[in-house]
Description:
279 residues; alpha/beta; disordered N terminus
Amino acid sequence: MPIHSWGPQELSAPAARQLREVPVEQGMVLEDVQTGWVGAVTRVEKSGGMHILSLEDRRGKNRSFQLGFGFLLDGEPVKIVPPRAAKAPQGPRRTASGSIHVETKARTALASRIWVEGKHDAELVERVWGDDLRVEGIVVEPLHGVDDLPSVVREFGPGTGRKLGILVDHLVPGSKEQRIVDELMRQPGVAGNVLVVGHPYVDVWQAIKPQTLGIQAWPEIPRGTDWKTGILKAFGWPHATPEDIGLGWQKLLSTVRSYADLEPSLLGRVEEVIDFLTA
């Protein structure tokens, strides 16, 4: 992505000093005066000693610019500066899961594992419970589907000190997923060493509260339409390629800051799995 930096001839120093300084914020809508590019701030990062912001226009396209002069905010010329440092927290520091942060090195990974259906499930669990899991030494691994769950569990070989906690999408009575789990739980050596829990959503995306995204409810997607593609299309976001799906998920994931942004039906199940593996 092209990065624009402002040279000394583009704005005179005396005029620049008179501009109001505005700390950059996620979602802030800015116009780059030289190119006319208008977009919302989606990312701020430090690269090569410079702060760079990314502006996404209404068509979902991004361009990057260096912080500083040359921006309009609500029509006002301003100087965009790095975000303000967060104030020191009052009281005990808490993790995204709501637990008290423990200042300790991450443990060596245990033999026990949390298995989730896919990459997005793993990223969501990591975002909220990552600090807790590192303290406990528990690793989250994506299964990429549960069709072969009984055979992969046999291969894992659960037993004493080698437990599995498995989170399954759309685990509801009568579903294909429920039949697979029932078959699994009849296997020798599974009882007491494997815990399977699930949430009712078609995809883990739906475990993000609609209010977190600023919507009343998740869109209804017609049967026969790929659910993720339909969701992104309903949002007016790019949705034609796997890359579009991945970028759309990253947008959704970026709205999740703590357990409060997720549905209780997912929170309870993940906490149940962690308790099972650490008991």
